[in-house]
């Protein structure tokens, strides 16, 4: 069921507010809306299922910009018009694989790369899988959580096309370049997923679509001039995370992740070192630890962190991914709030 927002005050105890310009969708309705839209822009039913499963999970976890609005970006991306070929393994050893993504969007190609990593970690205990000739993959934690649910420690990096302006430069030269770590525990997967840009590109696109200004110190226009105009920032770039004083840390990490993209084959297709490359590592804790008690030790680690003395006014010490996991379960029941303009745009594709 799709309902219109009725109030600007969240008096009902719901996680997300209903607004006059929003709609509240059930998970099933959001999935149906998304899959229909993805199929209309040229993907198969199975590909649409893979794509939208992540988009719905992103929204359930509270990442609105990484949810159904991404379909609008997919529809306008020039790569979608260039045709696709089957995803193939072009080089393989018992503990590694390099995959040609066939110009599929990363939601699909990285899904298959993560499955390959699970397969190899299961058989050989450790693996490295890279995929190139692909593009935007969404939220790293989505793929890492799949690997962790299979019982493995994981790391995933994603280099992409220039969006981030290095300190002192006037044009972008690095991707938003996220990195994600994942660990199994007795309570379930624990992930830490961070982008190395001050703001992820999808969030900039959503601000531009909704005509909302960016926070101060985030964006640069095509001339390298600071701006809060999201549309102008789309023609320029964003700063590394860390702000004016510590942006060199975000820049250095982004630089390293772009280099790891080369290991994943990012320069193979177009001979460009500033391009998309997705890398997965997976390790079975059993090959490292006597008794394979990693999950038990991870849970002990979490309990000790959460049991630390709290500062005044602090109710709880949270660990990475805890907020997202709790909110995911609430939104499954309460539904997903999405901008009415986004829903109308998806229906109009």
Write up what this structure looks like.
- This protein has 349 residues and is an alpha+beta fold.
- The protein is 39% helix and 17% strand.
- It is built from eleven helices and 13 strands.
- The protein has helices at 27-40, 45-60, 70-76, 106-124, 140-149, 201-209, 230-234, 243-263, 294-306, 322-334, 340-347, and strands spanning 2-4, 22-25, 88-93, 96-100, 126-132, 153-159, 179-183, 190-194, 219-220, 226-227, 237-238, 277-283, 336-339.
- The strands form three sheets. A seven-stranded mixed beta sheet has the order 3-4-5-12-6-7-8, sandwiched between helices. It has a three-stranded antiparallel beta sheet with strand order 1-2-13. Strands 10-9-11 form a three-stranded antiparallel beta sheet.
- Helix 4 links the parallel strand 4 (96-100) and strand 5.
- Helix 1 crosses helix 2 (45-60) and helix 4 (106-124) runs parallel beside helix 5.
- It is globular.
- The chain starts with a strand and ends with a helix.
- The mean pLDDT is 94.
Quick gist of this model?
The protein has 349 residues and is of the alpha+beta class. The chain is built from 11 helices and 13 strands.
Provide keyphrases for this structure.
single chain; 349 residues; alpha+beta; seven-stranded mixed β-sheet; three-stranded antiparallel β-sheet; 13 strands; 39% helix; globular
For the report, how would you describe the main beta sheet? 7 strands, mixed
What amount of the residues lies in strands?
Answer: 15-25%
Element pattern in H and E: EEHHHEEHEHEEEHEEHEHEHHEH
Helix content: 25-40%
End-to-end Cα distance, whole Å, is: 21 Å
Structural class, from secondary structure content? Answer: alpha+beta
In total, the number of strands is 13
Query: Whole-number average pLDDT?
Result: 94
Give the overall shape: globular
Strand order of the largest sheet: 3-4-5-12-6-7-8
**Structural Rg:** 20 Å
Low-confidence stretches: none
Count up the helices. 11
């Amino acid at each position: 069921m799709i309902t219109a927002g009725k109030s600007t005050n969240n008096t009902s105890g719901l996680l997300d507010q209903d607004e006059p310009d929003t709609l509240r969708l059930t998970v099933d309705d959001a999935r149906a809306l998304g899959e229909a839209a993805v199929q209309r822009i040229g993907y198969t039913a199975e590909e649409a299922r893979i794509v939208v499963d992540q988009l719905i999970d992103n929204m359930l976890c509270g990442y609105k910009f990484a949810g159904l609005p991404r379909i609008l970006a997919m529809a306008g991306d020039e790569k979608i018009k260039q045709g696709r070929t089957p995803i193939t393994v072009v080089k393989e050893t018992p503990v590694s694989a390099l995959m040609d993504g066939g110009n599929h969007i990363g939601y699909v190609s990285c899904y298959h790369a993560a499955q390959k990593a699970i397969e190899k970690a299961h058989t050989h205990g450790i693996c490295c899988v890279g995929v190139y000739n692909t593009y935007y993959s969404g939220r790293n934690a989505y793929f890492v959580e799949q690997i962790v649910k299979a019982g493995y420690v994981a790391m995933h990096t994603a280099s992409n096309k220039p969006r981030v302006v290095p300190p002192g430069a006037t044009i972008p030269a690095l991707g938003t370049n996220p990195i994600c770590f994942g660990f199994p525990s007795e309570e379930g997967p624990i992930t830490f997923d961070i982008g190395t840009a001050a703001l992820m590109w999808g969030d900039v696109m959503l601000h531009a679509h909704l005509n909302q200004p960016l926070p101060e110190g985030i964006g640069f226009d095509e001339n390298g001039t600071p701006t809060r105009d999201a549309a102008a920032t789309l023609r320029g770039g964003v700063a590394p995370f860390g702000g004016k004083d510590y942006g060199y840390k975000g820049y250095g990490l982004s630089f390293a992740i772009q280099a790891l993209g080369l290991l994943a084959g990012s320069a193979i297709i177009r001979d460009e070192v500033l391009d998309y490359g997705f890398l997965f590592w997976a390790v079975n804790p059993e090959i490292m630890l006597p008794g394979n008690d990693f999950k038990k030790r991870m849970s002990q680690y979490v309990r000790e962190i959460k049991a630390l003395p709290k500062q005044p006014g602090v109710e709880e010490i949270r660990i990475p991914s805890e907020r997202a996991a709790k909110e995911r379960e609430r939104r499954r029941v309460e539904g997903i709030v999405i901008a009415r303009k986004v829903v109308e745009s998806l229906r109009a594709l």
